[in-house]
């Protein structure tokens, strides 16, 4: 099948949620009076959880019929690394430049960062230099596990994913994750449950029984889950990021993703082009928006906000939102997209020419 636009639309929703979530703090810091964005909307940070669910679905999509093939394993790892690191390094170096020139402007309220560990996205106790990069460490771990699964038979994938999920649940309900090293906190964190649930949605979508799934009850369940999710998160926001949250959030987003994908496949809806376009540039927006919001906040502070009217806040919020998306579009078109296309072409050519297939490597 061709490109699944529902994935891009949901990526657009996810990055908009994260953007608005961080705009809450920036508005509170730089506006001189009442704020327009409500702190009750802290559930918007669940955009990252949606990204994890989408990643699981995408892993199933891009690895179909590619298991137990050394060439495809190498290609998979190359494309995942090429997707994460080069664009990330652009914003790492930009943030490092700001740190060297104006140290108080970078993560001043979150502590110092280990530069080299942040550069390579290695787990550590300190905050990442690019603050949002913590989620990329989880993504890399998910990719590493999935690459190991590619060595097995494809029909074993559901069982292996279920075993992974069961192991995580048993560990997290019986042990204290905080007692472990930074690396083990990534390996054992229940965030992987959201990735696994996204993978489960992908397996259902591509199964031979998918056409039998009745859409009305599925869509109703997805809608009810989306309505309940902000309430649940608000009730649990002060608690730990535990198994229950991951199962409810991951399950809700997996339901939504599966419902929208099936609706699109059966031609019952077309995702809005604007959301799909934002989804295309979501990685750049995600990496860059903290820097953009900081610049706009400083400009607004110099301008001199008027605390006596909310019209002032409307202008500030609109400026932040527009600047983050405008920069994201420009940088996606001029930096991310050409770079990804170049690396994809190189990777496909290199693995096509040099990597042996499973048949080639078998003893004769």
From TrEMBL:
<feature type="transmembrane region" description="Helical">
    <location>
        <begin position="126"/>
        <end position="149"/>
    </location>
</feature>
<feature type="transmembrane region" description="Helical">
    <location>
        <begin position="243"/>
        <end position="263"/>
    </location>
</feature>
<feature type="transmembrane region" description="Helical">
    <location>
        <begin position="315"/>
        <end position="332"/>
    </location>
</feature>
<dbReference type="InterPro" id="IPR002656">
    <property type="entry name" value="Acyl_transf_3_dom"/>
</dbReference>
<feature type="transmembrane region" description="Helical">
    <location>
        <begin position="84"/>
        <end position="106"/>
    </location>
</feature>
<keyword id="KW-0012">Acyltransferase</keyword>
<feature type="transmembrane region" description="Helical">
    <location>
        <begin position="283"/>
        <end position="303"/>
    </location>
</feature>
<protein>
    <submittedName>
        <fullName>Acyltransferase</fullName>
    </submittedName>
</protein>
<keyword id="KW-0472">Membrane</keyword>
<feature type="transmembrane region" description="Helical">
    <location>
        <begin position="12"/>
        <end position="30"/>
    </location>
</feature>
<feature type="transmembrane region" description="Helical">
    <location>
        <begin position="42"/>
        <end position="63"/>
    </location>
</feature>
<feature type="transmembrane region" description="Helical">
    <location>
        <begin position="218"/>
        <end position="237"/>
    </location>
</feature>
<keyword id="KW-0808">Transferase</keyword>
<keyword id="KW-0812">Transmembrane</keyword>
<dbReference type="Pfam" id="PF01757">
    <property type="entry name" value="Acyl_transf_3"/>
</dbReference>
<feature type="domain" description="Acyltransferase 3">
    <location>
        <begin position="5"/>
        <end position="331"/>
    </location>
</feature>
<keyword id="KW-1133">Transmembrane helix</keyword>
<dbReference type="GO" id="GO:0016746">
    <property type="term" value="F:acyltransferase activity"/>
</dbReference>
<feature type="transmembrane region" description="Helical">
    <location>
        <begin position="187"/>
        <end position="206"/>
    </location>
</feature>
<feature type="transmembrane region" description="Helical">
    <location>
        <begin position="156"/>
        <end position="175"/>
    </location>
</feature>
<dbReference type="InterPro" id="IPR050879">
    <property type="entry name" value="Acyltransferase_3"/>
</dbReference>
């Amino acid at each position: 099948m061709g490109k699944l636009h529902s994935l891009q639309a949901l990526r657009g929703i996810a990055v908009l949620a994260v953007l608005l979530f961080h705009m809450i703090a920036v508005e509170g810091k730089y506006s001189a009076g009442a704020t327009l964005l409500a702190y009750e909307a802290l559930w918007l940070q669940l955009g990252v959880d949606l990204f994890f669910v989408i990643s699981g679905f995408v892993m199933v999509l891009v690895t179909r019929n590619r298991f137990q093939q050394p060439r495809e394993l190498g290609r998979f790892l190359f494309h995942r690394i090429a997707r994460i690191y080069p664009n990330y390094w652009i914003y790492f170096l930009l943030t490092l430049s700001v740190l060297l020139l104006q140290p108080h402007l970078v993560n001043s309220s979150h502590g110092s960062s280990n530069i080299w560990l942040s550069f390579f996205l290695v787990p550590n106790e300190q905050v990442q230099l690019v603050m949002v990069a913590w989620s990329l460490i989880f993504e890399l771990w998910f990719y590493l596990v999935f690459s190991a699964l590619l060595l097995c038979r494809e029909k074993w994938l559901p069982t292996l994913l279920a075993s992974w999920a069961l192991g995580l649940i048993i560990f997290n309900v019986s042990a204290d994750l905080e007692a472990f090293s930074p690396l083990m906190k990534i390996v054992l964190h229940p965030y992987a449950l959201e990735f696994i649930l996204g993978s489960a949605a992908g397996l259902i979508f591509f199964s031979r029984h998918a056409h039998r799934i009745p859409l009305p009850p599925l869509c109703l369940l997805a809608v009810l889950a989306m309505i309940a999710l902000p309430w649940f998160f608000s009730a649990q926001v002060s608690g730990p990021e535990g198994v229950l949250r991951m199962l409810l959030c991951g399950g809700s987003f997996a339901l939504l993703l599966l419902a929208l994908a099936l609706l699109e496949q059966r031609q019952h809806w077309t995702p809005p082009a604007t959301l799909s376009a934002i989804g295309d540039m979501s990685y750049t927006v995600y990496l860059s928006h903290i820097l953009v919001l900081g610049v706009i906040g400083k400009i607004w502070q110099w301008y001199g906000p008027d605390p006596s009217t909310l019209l002032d806040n409307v202008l500030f919020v609109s400026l932040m939102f527009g600047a983050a998306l405008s920069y994201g579009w420009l940088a996606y078109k001029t930096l991310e997209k050409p770079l990804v296309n170049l690396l994809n072409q190189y990777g496909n050519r290199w693995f096509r020419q040099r990597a042996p297939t499973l048949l080639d490597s078998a003893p004769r």
